[in-house]
Amino acid sequence: MREDTIYAPASAIGGAIAVLRISGPKAGETARILSADITKTPRELRFVRVLDGTETVDDSMAVFFPAPHSYTGENMVEIDCHGGGQTVQHILALLSRLGFRPAEGGEFTRRAFLNGKMDLSQAEAVMDVITAGAQQSLKAAMQQLHGSVSREVASIESLLLDALSGIDAAVDYPEEAEADAYAALPEQLLAAHSRMERLLADGRRGRVLRDGMQVVILGRPNVGKSSLLNALLGQERAIVTSAAGTTRDVLDERTSIRGVPVRLLDTAGIRDAADEVERIGVTRAWKALETADIVLVLVDSSMPLAPEDRALIDETAGMTRIVVKNKSDLPCCCKLPDQIEAAAVAVSAKMGTGLEALSERILALAGPSRADAAGITNERHLHALERARLAVDSAMMAGELDCTATDIRSALHFLGEITGTDVDDAVIDRIFSRFCVGK
């Protein structure tokens, strides 16, 4: 436990109710500014008056959580007071007079981690729960907060530790255990490798639950890109006119598809532009493709396929792409190559038809199969897991037991970076630096 006691608002100031948190060895002394000794009735939410001497500051509710049965693992108090700024600031000043200090960003969760109430992956999930931008994002974050990543990592660590213990036995007792160690190693390492491969495959797709799927709408001018953006958003965000080249820059909007967060990027029409501003817009459109999870190449189905359309289809052939035939409410005059035609999706952005099928195709190509399949969505976790997999690859190819053991220990180190059992203080500082105060 830390020696100092900290406090902070855990909710926004200015609403009807504000929640104030106090954590540390002297948190129970908060009773000195309350009309009742809440330490005598732990875990019981009680009506109290907050007092400044004999003056009543506020009518509130308060609860005391004794260590270690609290969020931080320390003595904790929560005060639910009225949320007006003057009220909150007065109570915070009283807490300061008790000798408590204001908490730093993320310090409550950091103490929970340091006191063993959660591992590092669960601590990071706290912030993911707070910042979740869509339903499935929240579901995935809650699963990680409840230990889904921890359990997956522990299962892999168990396989590697079994292999390592077999090697150690073979080194100590070569005549009795060496043959058994060599016999068991391939199966143990392959099982660990397979689990990591599955997690990485799910995680690469599941990353969109945390960071959002980036979908770039690409096409020549006046094929309906902005109309499609508006239709997918369900609101008028992009200016739509009959004049070609209305969109001059990348328009970035957020929405969700089946609860999965999506960033939709409407780009400038791709053509040889004479106007300098439009040329910059076209350049930015191509730049957006570099980080796209999926590209929607839009063509006007009411017109014959133009050379610009063909060029875009050819240039995006190696990308995760959907060719979208817009204006399907009009007679079709656009003939695509047979293979592309078979996979194309017909929509009418104006009438709102075909959008359901397009959304389904987007999720099928770039979204997670289901939220619970994406056990790892954090880029830091995926990077550590990838390094652990490479270490196991090396272990599988090593011929000598001591080399295999070194590679296995390296893999265990990288797995420990995920849960925090083997991680540098600098990494911990960086993780909690993005937390807000009170969390």
Shape: flat
Number of strand elements: 12
User: How are the strands of the biggest sheet laid out side by side?
Assistant: 3-4-5-2-1-6
Q: Kindly provide the radius of gyration, computed on alpha-carbon positions and rounded to a whole number of angstroms.
A: 29 Å
Portion in beta strands: 15-25%
By secondary-structure content and strand pairing, the structural class works out as: alpha/beta
What does this structure look like?
The chain has helices at 85-97, 107-114, 120-131, 135-145, 148-172, 174-211, 225-233, 276-288, 307-315, 338-343, 355-366, 379-397, 401-419, 425-432, and strands at 6-9, 17-23, 46-52, 55-65, 76-82, 101-102, 213-218, 251-257, 260-266, 294-300, 321-326, 345-346. The protein has 439 residues and is of the alpha/beta class. Strands 3-4-5-2-1-6 form a 6-stranded mixed sheet, covered by helices on one side. A 6-stranded mixed sheet has the order 8-9-7-10-11-12, sandwiched between helices. It starts with 5 loop residues before the first strand and ends in a 7-residue tail after the last helix.
